[in-house]
Write a structure and sequence with these properties.
The structure is a homodimer. The first copy, chain A, is α/β, with parallel strands linked by helices. Helices cover 32% and strands 25% of the residues of chain A.
Chain lengths: 410, 410
C-alpha cells in the first residue's frame, strides 16, 4: 500500500514525519453520504450526529459539517470543540454520563442543544445546576440487554454503567415533565461495532416499545428517537461491510410502523455513528524502527500502545499493510517502542518481509485511535494530516518537548 | 481517608480541583531509603535508577535526586526530562527498545550515560547513527522465560519483545567489542510487580550464569550488572509487602558468590525500580459526580479510564477509600465519565455509602497512572500536586481547552 487518497505515503511520511495519522476526506464524506442517502430513501426525517468522541479533530468535524452532518458531544470540552468546528444549537447532540453539577452548569448554558441524560440522578444534577431547565431533554434507556463487538464496548445490559433501567424510565420522564420540561426525546444504545443489519431493527423495536410504554402513560410524544451508533466496520479481511441499505430499510420500516401504531407522528430519527463514518477513512503511517530475530520475529514500529491503544486495551485487530508488497511474506509479531510487553500491535500475522526504515500503514485508524493516544514513555502524540482532492495539509501538529514543559508553566 | 501527608484531602480538592494526582514526598523518599539501605547492608557498590516511565513528573524526579537516586530513561524525551530534573551523565541509565536511527543520533550525543541496547540490531542502528561509539554499553538479555504480575507486564520469555535471546548474546558482545567498545555491562528484566523475594535471587543467578558464559569467552568482565526492576507493591489488602531486606540479602549473596566464582571482581549492581519507589506514594483524589441505582449500583467519579488506565487496560485493581468512613458499607461498581463500558474502575467492591460531591481516594496511583493518561472524550489530563512536610504545591497543571487548541498552532 503506497498511497492514501492519491497522495504517496512516502511523501506524507517525509513531509510530516512518523507516526502519522492521515484522514481521507473523500472517504469520510462518502461514508456519510452512503449512510445518509440510505436513510433518506426510507425515512427523511433523520439526522446523523457524528460522534466526536471517536475523532475530535476540528478539521475532521468541519469536513463532516461540509458533508451535511451534525455532531454528538460527550463532554463539556467536546461541546467547545464542536463549536470551534462551526456547530451550534440543535446541530449538537449532547450525550454524557455521570456529569458533575459543574459540567451541567456549562451544558445548560447551551440550552438549544439536544441534551440527553443518562439517569434520573443526572436530571437532578441538571436541576441543581440551573433553574432554567432546557425546554427539551431525552433520557438514555438501558433495556437490560446489550451486544457489542466485545464486553468493553457493550453499552447496555445489567453490567453496563449506562442508561436508566427501563423499569425506572417512566419515573424519570414524569419527574422531568412535572419540573416543566416541555419536549422530549428518547435514547438507547446497546453496543458498538455491530455488522449485523437485523440487530439494529431489533434495537429500534425494543426502544419503540419502551417509548410507547413510557410516553403513553404520561401523555407525551417523542420529538426525536436516538437509536445511538454502533454501526460496525470490518477490521478483518474476512468480515463483510455492514449492509447499510438493508439496515436503513429495516430500521425505517420498524420505526415507521411503530410510530403509526403508537401514534407518535413522525419524530426525528437520530443516529450518532462515529466508527462507521471515520474508522476506514483514517490511516496510521508508521516506520519500521527495528527488526529482531528473537524466539519470534519482531517488527518494531515507531507507533505503539501509546499511539494506538485499541490492540493493547481490547486485544483489537488492525490490518497492517507494507509499503512494498513485492517481498515474500513471513510470519511476524508487530510491536512498538514502549517499555512494556502489552505493546504488541499484532501477533503472528503474515507480511511481506520488512526492513528498518520501511513504511507500514495501519488500517481503520480513524476512530478511537488518536483520541485515546497517550504520552506514555514520554513519546509525543503524533500529528494528523488530511488528504483531499490530491492535496494534503497538516490538521494537528505533533506534540513536542515544549508542549510537555508547557504544563509546568503556572 | 481524609489526609495525605498531613494535608486535608478536602483542602487539596478545593484548591486544585479534581481529579487530582497527589504525591507524598516523605513516602517516596522513605521507599527509596528502605531499598537503598537494604542493598547497602549487603553490597555497597549498588545503584538505584528510578524508572521515569513509571512517573515522569520533573518534581518527582527532583525528589528522588534529593534522596540520592539516579534515574532510568526509556526514550529520547525521557532523557530530556531527566536532564530537566538535574540528572546527567552516568546518573542516567538509558534503556529503550526498537529505537530508530534518529533516536540513536540523539541518544549517542549523551555518550556518558549508561546505554543499554535491546538487540544486536539496536547496536547496528547505534553504529549507523554515530561512528563515535560510546565507550561502554550493555545488552538486555532475554533468558527465554519470564514472570510478571500478568502477561502484559511479563517482560521476558519466548513471546516477549524484549532482549536478545541468550543464545545470541555472545555474538552481540563480540560484535560490539570488535567495533571498539571498551567497557561492558549486562541487563535482564523478566517481569514486573513481583512480591516474592526469592524470585529476584533466581533471576540474578540466571543472569550471572549467562554473563559468565558470554563474557569469559570474550575475555571481558561486566562493569555493571543491571537486574532491572519488577519489585512489586501490594495492590490488595490481602497481599504482603515485598520483604526488601530478605530480597536484598538474597540477591547480594547470590551476586557476590557468582562474582567471586566467575572472577568478575565487584561490578556495580544496578536496579531500576519504578513502581516500588512511587506507586504507594501516589494518590488520585476524585469526586463522586453521580450515584445511579441501575441493575447494579454505580458510583460515577470524575476520574475514569482516561485518568487512570490500569483497570481498563489490565483489569488491574486499585483500592478506593471514601473520605468519610462512618456510613454503612454497600456493594458498588465504580465507574468514570467516559462514554464506554470499559470505563469501570472497580466491580462489586464494598464502600461506605457515597453521595454526589463526596471525595474518594484511589490508592497506589503513583506509578503507571498519570503517564498513561489520555484526553479521551476530550476530558483534560489532571493536575499533579506534591505534599511534603505539611505543605503542598502544584507540580504540573491541569490540561485546558487552550492546550488542546495549541496543537492547532503551526
Amino acid at each position: 500500500m503506497n498511497t492514501i487518497g492519491e497522495i504517496g505515503i512516502k511523501e506524507l511520511a517525509s513531509e510530516y514525519g512518523t507516526p502519522l495519522y492521515v484522514y481521507d476526506e473523500q472517504k469520510l464524506t462518502a461514508n456519510y453520504h452512503r449512510l445518509k442517502s440510505a436513510l433518506d430513501k426510507y425515512y427523511t426525517r433523520n439526522s446523523i450526529h457524528f460522534a466526536t468522541k471517536s475523532n475530535n479533530n476540528i478539521e475532521v468535524l468541519k469536513s463532516f459539517k461540509k458533508a451535511g452532518s451534525r455532531v454528538e458531544a460527550s463532554s463539556p470540552m467536546e461541546i467547545l470543540i464542536a463549536e470551534a468546528a462551526g456547530f451550534s444549537g440543535d446541530d449538537i447532540f449532547y450525550n454524557g454520563n455521570y456529569e458533575s453539577v459543574e459540567d451541567f452548569e456549562f451544558i445548560s448554558s447551551r440550552s438549544s442543544m439536544k441534551i440527553n441524560l443518562d439517569d434520573i440522578s443526572s436530571f437532578d444534577r441538571l436541576f441543581k445546576a440551573t433553574k432554567e431547565l432546557p425546554e427539551r431533554i431525552s433520557f438514555r434507556i438501558n433495556p437490560g440487554v446489550g451486544r457489542g463487538g466485545f464486553e468493553g464496548i457493550t453499552t447496555a445490559g445489567s453490567d453496563a454503567k449506562f442508561g436508566i433501567p427501563y423499569e425506572m424510565a417512566k419515573h424519570a420522564y414524569r419527574k422531568a415533565k412535572e419540573a416543566g420540561v416541555k419536549r422530549f426525546g428518547i435514547h438507547m444504545m446497546t453496543g458498538s461495532n455491530n455488522l449485523e443489519p437485523y440487530y439494529f431493527a431489533e434495537a429500534v423495536d425494543k426502544l419503540m416499545m419502551i417509548a410507547h410504554d413510557v410516553f403513553s402513560e404520561l401523555d407525551i410524544a417523542p420529538e426525536f428517537v436516538n437509536i445511538g451508533g454502533g454501526f460496525g466496520v470490518p477490521y478483518y479481511d474476512e468480515e463483510s461491510e455492514l449492509d447499510v441499505d438493508l439496515m436503513a430499510r429495516l430500521i425505517s420500516e420498524t420505526f415507521i410502523e411503530r410510530c403509526q401504531k403508537y401514534g407518535f407522528g413522525s419524530p426525528e430519527l437520530i443516529l450518532e455513528p462515529g466508527r462507521y463514518l471515520i474508522a476506514n477513512a483514517g490511516y496510521l503511517i508508521s516506520q519500521v524502527t527495528g527488526v529482531k530475530d528473537s524466539y519470534r520475529k519482531f517488527i518494531g514500529l515507531d507507533a505503539g500502545m501509546g499511539t494506538i491503544a485499541r490492540p493493547s486495551l481490547y486485544g483489537a485487530f488492525h490490518r497492517i499493510k507494507a509499503y512494498d508488497n513485492s517481498n515474500p511474506e513471513e510470519r511476524v509479531n508487530i510491536c512498538g517502542q514502549y517499555c512494556e510487553n502489552s505493546d504488541i500491535l499484532a501477533k503472528g500475522i503474515s507480511l511481506p518481509k520488512l526492513a528498518e526504515g520501511d513504511l507500514v500503514t495501519i488500517l481503520d485508524a480513524g476512530a478511537y485511535c488518536y483520541v485515546m493516544a497517550s504520552s506514555y514513555n514520554s513519546r509525543p502524540i503524533p500529528a494528523e494530516v488530511m488528504v483531499s482532492s490530491g492535496k494534503h495539509k497538516l490538521i494537528r501538529r505533533r506534540e513536542t518537548f515544549d508542549d510537555f514543559m508547557n504544563l509546568y508553566n503556572f
